Amino acid sequence: MASSQQWSSKLGFLYATAGSAIGLGAIWKFPYIAGTNGGGAFFMLFLGFTLLIGVPLLIGEYILGRHSGSDAITTFRKLAPKSVFQATGWLGVITCFLILSFYSVIGGWSLLYLGSSLTGQLSQLESDQFAVRFADLISNPYLAIGAQAFFLALTAGIVSQGVQKGIERASKWMIPGLFILLLILAGYSLTLEGAREGLAFLFKPDWSNVSNDVVLFALGQSFFALSLGVSIMVTLSSYASKKQDLPLSAITLGGMNIFVAVLAGIMIFPGVFTFNLEPSEGPTLIFAAVPSIFSTMPYGQVLVFLFFILFFFAALSTAFSLLEIVVAAFMKGDSRKRQKSSWFFAFLVLLMGVPSALSFGVIDHWSIFEMTFFDAIDYIVSNVFIPIGALCISFVLLFKMRRRALFLEFKQGSVFGRKLFIVWYTIIVTIVPIAISVVLIDQLLGLNVLSIFFS
């Protein structure tokens, strides 16, 4: 009988990791980041980074986690003792904590929209009124913080139940439902008047508008969407059995992630151009665009309710993993500490997240590097902490694990053998660290060299 601290099946592992990766990273964040960074060129960069860097690094994180069988902090302390890389686990835990502080705000927004659709308030609005209605909701400090607190309470309640009974059980039915509804919505969006313009924006690259920031955002999104660089996948794979095919799981998850991001883009951008919304609307884009699309559909109010239920589930599935990494690090294998740790850290996340929740109302005039508090936290973790974490993980794979140990873990339970391992190992020791280093150095030093390649 499988332990409660191990996935019950290969499919359970895939669902749990998919819940972390495919959640809001693909559905909420990809459309708005693509919209604010030019569309097609950003998508092509995101695609390239995901295939050449993201998936190989995902395999590496899987290997580290299953090889260690420990939480993130313990894993890097074991593999890289008395070196700067032993701090990689701490960096991941801190980053997950910060991500959850603003992700829980989005989860709260989904709850507010669920409430509005249940009470019929959304059905009374015209397509051009949804953005105003949403702005009114999230600018109310009591609603914003209350919804965030309720979302975190649900997250803590599920994580406190453990790996199988909590995270895996919830993910098994949420992820398939989300796929089905995304397919329906994307198909309907293709019938809208602005479909051709929306698809051209998403898939036709204009390389003349690519800057260092666009390249950095594309790299950051490829990591963010796969939950890389923060040791989430290290921790989740520590619960994987030796029969799990890690390379195949990573390739499958990478493909699912790209597919969902494309579906989300097809779902959003035709509606954006049909209803004269701004692609660069920012974090609130999906909340303005989706109800507008639904308002033109038969049974639209029923479907908008179903969508935001599933959107809420996507937010929860991501939140499970983020909180699990923090909780697991402080449990140190003692399952008796799980319940108290889950609630304690959820409360700390809420305190940290209050300024993000208020960034669209009470403190919208606060500015950090010319960004709201919400945007500043998002930018720092997505484009600084996560790439640095990913770089550190690639160095641990390169310098702190023997090649034979990597090969044995790579082929354990896998249909792939030495040939694919050689390809993976070549990428992980050359392309991955070099590409991340070049993008980070170019951005941090303000050299603007990368834009030369796209002009």
From TrEMBL:
Compartmental location: Membrane
Major subcellular location class: membrane
Keyword Transmembrane: yes
Bilayer-crossing regions: 12-30, 42-64, 84-106, 142-163, 175-195, 215-236, 248-273, 302-331, 343-368, 380-399, 420-441
UniProt xrefs under Pfam families: SNF (PF00209)
Keyword Glycoprotein: no
CDD domains reported in the protein's UniProt record: SLC6sbd_Tyt1-Like
Listed InterPro entries: Na/ntran_symport, SNS_sf, YocR/YhdH-like
Domain of life assignment: Bacteria
Sequence similarity: Belongs to the sodium:neurotransmitter symporter (SNF) (TC 2.A.22) family.
Name of this protein: Transporter
Originating species: Shouchella xiaoxiensis
